[in-house]
Amino acid sequence: MESSSDGEVNLTTLLLQATVDNSSSATAVTILIIVILLLLLMTAITSGSEVAFFSLTAKDVNYLKTKETAINKLAIRMLEKPKMLLATILIGNNFINIAIVITMKMLMDKLLPPHISEMMFFVINAVVVTFLLVLFGEVLPKVYATQNNMRMALFAAPVLNVMGGIFKPVSKVLVNSTNYIERRIGNTKTTTISNEDFEHAIELTVGHTATKQEVNIFKGILKFSNIAVKQIMRTRMDVGAIPHDISFKEVKERAIELGYSRLPVYEESLDKIVGIVHTKKFLPYNQLDDYDWHELISPAYFVHEGKMIEDLLKEFQKERVHLAVVVDEFGGTSGIVTLEDIMEEIIGEIKDEFDDDEHQYKKIDDNNYIFEGKTLINDACRLMGLPSDTFENVREESDSMAGLLLELSGRFPTVNEVITHDIFDFTVLSLDKMRIQRIKVTINRSEEQEED
Questions:
Q1: Cα separation of 318 and 267, whole Å?
Q2: Edge-to-edge strands of the sheet including 333-338?
Q3: What is the reported pTM?
Q4: Which residues of 10-41 are buried (b: 16+ CB within 10 A; e: fewer)?
Q5: Among 101, 176, 182, 312, which residue's beta carbon has the most beta carbons within 10 A?
Q6: Where are the domains of the chain?
Q7: 287-313 burial by CB neighbour count: b if 16+ within 10 A, else e?
Q8: Hey, what CATH class is 227-347 in?
Q9: How many beta carbons lie within 10 A of that of residue 433, not counting itself?
Q10: Chain-centre distance of CA 376, in angstroms?
Q11: 184 vs 120, which has greater pLDDT?
Q12: pLDDT digits (tens, 9 = 90+) for 165-177
């Protein structure tokens, strides 16, 4: 009887131990799965944040600055140190991926049968880990971040801030090593001379013998071959044209009102320009009101907005024309460009009796200027004494100062609103419905720049 009782006790003990082992094993598996899911979430955040932060445009950054929340300020502070940000992302992502590999091995030890071969264990583990890392650590987060870069950047900012504090020593070593390598490589490889270097060389070589106007002409010649028609043309909204179906009396009144020597003639809309009329041809018939002025129309000369002005100048000389109609890729009229517009890129502003400087441009002092919104960016840079490519990295498709402000703000600004970019403060002075009329530009130069 005693031996039978002892056997029952041992069996019960074994069953209890097996139950406890199974329970603890299930608990361990559950914990490992939760840890892996958390690590996958972390690697998705870090991987997606790399795409999100480094795809933000100047317009996005300026929008973040207008909304002064704690998260926005944190994101902007990170963007001010891009190398440290990138180092934190890369180091954190690698550590998380290593943790996923280790945790996944522990999970596989629990789930796979013990008699499985080491090779099969390795293959299964490698396939599962690779699938999870590629799908949840690369593809999905980066696709999402590409489409929602600002949202992803703001979501990841607090996480990266914590990781930045943890990995700061390692990140610093990585950044310093990178800077050292860049300096070493930079000392041995041939560097490309920029336009700014050329301009500085011009000032050093001829600046002491030539006048300021002559130096500016040299600089204009240097930039001449890199300027497209779209950058200097008069935009469609500012084109003065004559309808084809009006009387000669109305044509004369329109010509006097506009004050230009050459005027485009259109049918129905500016997208259908049928020719150019020179107002000097009106003189012999000035006393007549019923003259058929259509006989005086000359064929229009059309150019694409992407054409370089260096090539257009040669065509103007060859074809003996002074005005061209600029068309876009769809054949619509973008604006007009004249021989005077091209020459101004070399010799500076050409003023005549019809120019009204007060409405186009006003210089308050060396650091404050007022422009009309329709002023071309190239002209504004020239008047402020800045390189023509000053706003090249943020202007995108804009050619006017008003367009530049719209791209920087990402929305339509209000009167007296200040939009900041780099060392520039743009203040909207006046609006006309949905058009920016006047802009004040303030240049916040450092003491060293002012001395230069």
A1: 28
A2: 234-235, 333-338, 323-327, 302-304
A3: 0.45
A4: eeeeeeeeeeeeeeeeeeeeeebeebbeebbe
A5: 312
A6: 2-186, 192-224, 227-347, 357-451
A7: eeeebebeebbeebbebbbebebeebb
A8: alpha beta
A9: 5
A10: 18
A11: 120
A12: 888 888 888 888 8
* Interatomic CA distance for residues 95 and 110, integer angstroms: 23
Span 357-451 CATH architecture: 2-Layer Sandwich (3.30)
* Exposure string over 327-348, b if 16+ CB within 10 A, otherwise e: beeeeebbbbbbeebbebbbee
**Structure tokens that stand for 224 in this block:** 């001449």
Contact 323, 239 (CB under 8 A): no
Is there a contact between 339 and 316 (Cβ–Cβ < 8 Å)?
A: yes
CA–CA distances in Å: residue 169 to residues 5, 83, 96, 165, 177: 66, 14, 17, 9, 12
354: Cβ–Cβ under 8 A, 6 or more apart, which residues?
259, 260
Cβ neighbours, 10 Å, residue 364: 11
| Helices 2-54 + 82-111 axis angle, to 10 | 160
Residue 63 has pLDDT above 80, yes or no: no
DSSP letters spanning 354-402 = T--HHHHEEEEETTEEEEETTSBHHHHHHHTT--TTTTHHHHTT--BHH
For residue 204, what pLDDT is reported? 62
Quote helix, strand, coil % in the chain, to nearest 5.
Answer: 60, 15, 25
| Secondary structure of 182-195 as H, E, C letters | HHHHHHHCCCCCCH
Instruction: Write the DSSP symbol of residue 264.
Output: E
Query: What are the residues whose beta carbons fall under 8 Å from the beta carbon of 19, sequence distance 6 or more?
Result: none
Q: In which element (H, E) is residue 97 found?
A: helix 82-111
**278 beta partners:** 262
Q: Which two tokens stand for residue 349?
A: 């502003």
